[in-house]
Amino acid sequence: MPSTIWSGAISFGLVTIPCKVVSATEDHSIRFHQVHLEDMGRVRTRKVCEIDGEVVLQEDIGKGYELTKDETVPITDAEFDQMPLPTAKAIEIVAFVDADTIDPVRIGDSYYLAIDGQVAAKPYTLLRKALERSDKVAIAKFAWHNRERLGLLRVRDNAIVLHAMRWPDEIRDPAELAPKETELDEDEVEQALQLAESMTIDDISGFRDAYRDALEELIEAKSEGKEPAQPTEGEAQQPSQVVDLMAALNASVQRARESRGETDEHATVHEMKPRKKTAAKKTAKKAPAKKAAAKKTTAKKTSSRKPRSA
């Protein structure tokens, strides 16, 4: 298991659950050092005071709030420790809500809550079962790094997960980003739904980071003195102007079904229904039909006459 990030207790009414917090995720990004290309020496970042130009040690660095360009208010660690933080050693559950009422944009990093000692096993299991049977999630307050935070507790594979959340006033209003109202044909909406259906899968565990895989192969080849393999040239995904939305949807549905191994026999693509014609157009089209009918009638009458005798 990863190292403990925080230890304290879950406060559930009058129930106290000693717990430890460990990260629920791992970052598999490949990291690089900054180096001097001439001799591969490491390039370090130094913290320098902008007044005297001297390098400052970590123990001599504190926090200050800038009121103006010429005035900064210093805050010491001791003053931070004296700030009222009732949730400094507790994850305090303050409410229960339906899971679907939580906007995903508010959810941040995820952590597992593990019991801290066998004495916590029973109340931990009690809280877990309460969350499972109620189909709800718990909203909690907790404090890390001298800051009170909002969190969400839910169950995942018999473990309680803590999701850090943003406060309501930390979410920007997207109203100014929304496009203006535009007309959509109902067939276009139906085809978009059909595309979503054709791309629906039951399990996303098979997705891999192709860029990281290629980067690992590059590093391995160079470390062994080999020539890196040339990347496979693929069709570049260039953004293009949408000219015919329905045609693009039809093509997307067809490609999605082909990628899943479905044959053309089962890949039924709905064509766009013709729009209603105007009255003028209808009249214009009826005229040739009447003429054709008239010619046909005349032809029948002519053919039905008896030939004159010589």
Tell me what the structure shows.
The protein has 310 residues and is α+β, with helices and mostly antiparallel strands. The protein has six helices and eleven strands. It has helices at 77-81, 121-134, 186-198, 210-223, 245-259, 279-304; strands spanning 6-12, 15-23, 35-36, 41-42, 63-68, 71-75, 90-98, 107-115, 136-144, 147-156, 159-165. The strands form three sheets. Strands 1-2-8-11-10-9-7 form a seven-stranded mixed beta barrel. A two-stranded antiparallel ribbon has the order 3-4. Strand 9 (136-144) and strand 10 (147-156) form a beta hairpin. Helix 3 (186-198) runs parallel beside helix 5.
Notable traits:
two-stranded antiparallel ribbon, alpha+beta, extended, 310 residues, seven-stranded mixed beta barrel
Brief rundown of the structure:
The chain is α+β, with helices and mostly antiparallel strands and 310 residues long. The chain is 28% helix and 24% strand. The strands form three sheets. A seven-stranded mixed β-barrel has the order 1-2-8-11-10-9-7. Strands 3-4 form a two-stranded antiparallel ribbon.
